[in-house]
Design a protein that fits this description.
homodimer; Aspartate Aminotransferase, domain 2; Aspartate Aminotransferase, domain 1; 3 domains; seven-stranded mixed beta sheet; four-stranded antiparallel beta sheet; 14 helices; 41% helix
Chain lengths: 486, 486
């Protein structure tokens, strides 16, 4: 087909040049992942590189080689570093090389999953079936791959809100309800739950934080007292949120007892299992998250302990109809037809706040087929064993002090040294040690606050880490602590 | 560093095998994109392939080659098809090969943009600065790359909600407000706006749909009457939503007049510019979207007319502080430190419902540097010229009838043939023709309803399309129409 000369799209002039850039990217990035241990765990961005990011929009194009070179020189070296075996900050996933290739495949295919028939919707449905089976959810449950756990939590809480408001909130709004809905979680709950309630129009005061004990877990008896108090004050409890692996210490709420309570009080039981839910993949760890399988809904990430590239999270909702009701809208242009592309029996565009969604499932489908679920489960078990090893070493070092129990894969501790310091000085010392260790490039720990005091925190969700990496980090902490006066 | 034998992550045993799979993927997928015109625009999924997607989770792994082969045989061929030059269903972007490679690079780097220092946050900030400049927004405006326009609309409407509720909604919830907030849009507004109001707890009745005229654009005088009525009934108007390119016909609301009205009535002016906003990139089309640059907030996609791979959308908010207020939460583990990875001055984790976000900006950064903004603008102009060409041809064919004006890049029309048919028979005929054209593999048009009647709809957002592709589609419509009785 001939085209007028003025018709020109965005495909490359020189496909061969782009193909070679593709090969070089594959070679260089896989090599970099393979040898990442030899590189610093983190490096600051030079001012000159930062300045390069201030240039105006490129009105004219440049060669694929030039773009590739610029990426390799200014972007890739100054990554956050969560692909490095000694990165333990926040709770960040490492990803896998196959997952990265899958992202190229998904983007080349460029599938939009908004209700039209294609292999992508079947792949996503399959991945969701796998997850339901592995987490003990019934196949009839509904699910969606989201951009991450925040949106997954939001979806689950919206379904719960709508079920308990007593009016059709989606039509009439929250103000039409005669109830003031309140949800419950431990005081160690992730901020995403609070933010979801803000988005949903319930406000952060709708989140009742029940103080935890020394193990940082929900105390179910206190939870029930709090519910009774609120009922007495005319509020309407609607949801209990269990944390399956808190972000600070990895604490797992007593999910089974919370499920019992939710059943008895006829409340929605939601589990935020951002990383912890995937412990259910391991036969030896499954017992630690017992009760998860009884939740009305669960939200978790695959880009954390699932080692998928960012961003992919999951929400599972036991009552598929309730899930569907919460997001139903009508649009003439979305009407299905009996045949052709619009014949898909796939209501995923009505299961969350997004309509168009990219092909998030392929990275799971390809990576899991490559490494297998068993090996992922073993990597998760390995991280738990590494956390136990750190705990043991911390307990054996006089200069270190464990800050919280280690129920899973997070360890919090402090460098206390050999001399007395004020609480404020000790806080400042932890932050200074963490910054120095980061700046040294040896490893990336982070800090958090427990009961108001700064602690060093390691989130071990990294399949590339080895016990020796954790030893190297502890050595660095001791070294910096001693350099700061011991 | 030696490791115990039981420590094994998810990296490949055989890096070289994975590297070769990477090369083959690059070769095969780029070749497929280069020759996509020779393939059918769509093909149904054989039942046997669908059955393959019912297998249980792979507990044991397999070789990278086997995974690669399965992807190429069962997934890639049955894609939705929006990468094909004759795909015009919904409003779906085509993507670019460089954009796909960028997705591999982003996933290998695996950066999480949740407030920590890295090159990725600077790239995202740069892309947002480009977009602000190109759309006429001030550099002081706030912005965020989202998974798509639905979440972008949600964010903008949440900021507006919070500014007008008269209480701190994020603390106290919508019920604490003494106002019933109502928003305004034309009856051609996208369902995402309704869904956003549902999520936000305002309910779909909070969306007042103002009937459009024959051009499917908002009638501003009717809008003001409706506002007056609502004020008279004690409701509180808070937001006017302008559609910059409606999903049914591409109609552009009189944005300038709506901005005037919003100013006069002190209302929030939000623009949903899912695809249409990018017309602002073209000097010759910019006039058609005049007024966009006056909005308080604008939401649009880059995976549609921006030709980026799914999913990436944008929200820009003129008042950066209002934007930040709407999503602020506190979490001890997210506290910044003066140096190291936690030293970033980058509050993106407080600008929307997500905390962790993948590196969505790289595909824009790399693709725009390759093809340049000017060429993207020309591709957009090309699509608008193609729509004008289709309009002209439809008007010249006795058997076809234009269904709506063609203000931009969408064309709606019907096959009316040469004999009289009931309205219902005509509706069914359009659907049947569309399904047959899809099944033939020649092209993928879709349907929508205008004023309750089914029409054929072409969304021309495809940089790979040529005028000849649209002619081939029209020929196929005529052929199928005649085969169905003419």
């Amino acid at each position: 087909m001939n085209s007028p000369d003025d018709e020109r799209g965005l495909d490359p002039e020189d496909w061969e040049a782009l193909r070679l850039v593709g090969h070089r990217l594959v070679d260089e990035l896989l090599h970099s992942l393979r040898t990442v241990r030899e590189q610093p765990a983190w490096r600051p961005i030079p001012e000159s590189v930062k300045q390069g990011f201030r240039t105006p929009a490129p009105m004219q194009g440049s060669s694929p080689e030039a773009v590739h070179r610029e990426f390799l020189e200014t972007v890739f070296p100054y990554r956050l570093g969560n692909i490095h075996p000694r990165f333990f900050a926040r709770v960040m996933g490492t990803g896998t090389p196959m997952g990265a290739l899958a992202e190229f495949a998904a983007a080349a295919m460029n599938n939009n999953l908004s209700g039209l028939e294609s292999s992508a919707v079947h792949v996503e449905a399959q991945v969701l079936r796998w997850l339901k089976a592995l987490l003990g959810f019934p196949e009839t449950a509904s699910g969606l791959l989201t951009s991450g756990c925040s949106i997954a939590n939001l979806i689950a809480l919206q379904v719960a809100r709508d079920e308990y408001a007593g009016v059709d909130v989606n039509v009439e709004g929250v103000q039409a309800s005669r109830y003031r809905l309140v949800a419950y979680a431990s005081d160690e709950v992730h901020s995403a739950v609070q933010r979801a309630l803000m988005v949903l129009g319930l406000g952060s005061t709708a989140l009742r934080r029940v103080p935890t004990g020394p193990d940082f877990r929900m105390r179910v008896e206190d939870l029930e007292d709090r519910i009774d108090d609120d009922v007495g004050q005319g509020l309407r409890p609607f949801c209990i949120v269990g944390s399956c692996g808190t972000v600070n210490t990895g604490a797992i709420d007593p999910l089974d007892a919370m499920a019992d309570l939710a059943e008895r009080r006829k409340l929605w039981f939601h589990v935020d299992g951002a990383f912890g839910a995937l412990a259910a993949l391991s036969p030896s760890l499954r017992e630690r998250v017992r009760g998860l399988e009884r939740a009305h809904s669960v939200a978790f990430d695959l880009h954390k302990w699932g080692s998928a590239p960012y961003g992919v999270g999951v929400v599972l909702v036991r009552d598929a109809e309730a899930h569907h009701r919460a997001f139903q809208t009508e649009a003439a242009y979305l009407s299905p037809l009996p045949r052709g592309v619009a014949a898909a029996d796939y209501p995923a565009n009505e299961l969350g706040p997004e309509l168009s969604r990219g092909f998030r499932g392929l990275r799971i489908w390809m990576a899991w087929k490559e490494h297998g679920v068993s090996r992922l489960a073993r990597a998760i078990e390995m991280n738990v064993a590494q956390a136990a090893h750190v705990k043991q070493r911390v307990e054996g070092e006089a200069e270190l002090q464990l800050s919280a129990p280690v129920p899973l894969n997070l360890v919090t501790f402090r460098y206390v040294g050999r001399r007395r310091r004020s609480p404020e000085a000790l806080d400042a010392l932890q932050a200074e040690i963490v910054m120095r260790v980061q700046e040294s490039g040896v490893a990336v720990p982070s800090t958090t606050k427990l009961r108001g005091r700064t602690v060093i925190r390691l989130a071990i969700v990294n399949h590339r880490s080895r016990r020796a990496d954790l030893d190297a980090l502890l050595d660095a902490v001791l070294r910096e602590g001693r350099a700061l006066g011991g």
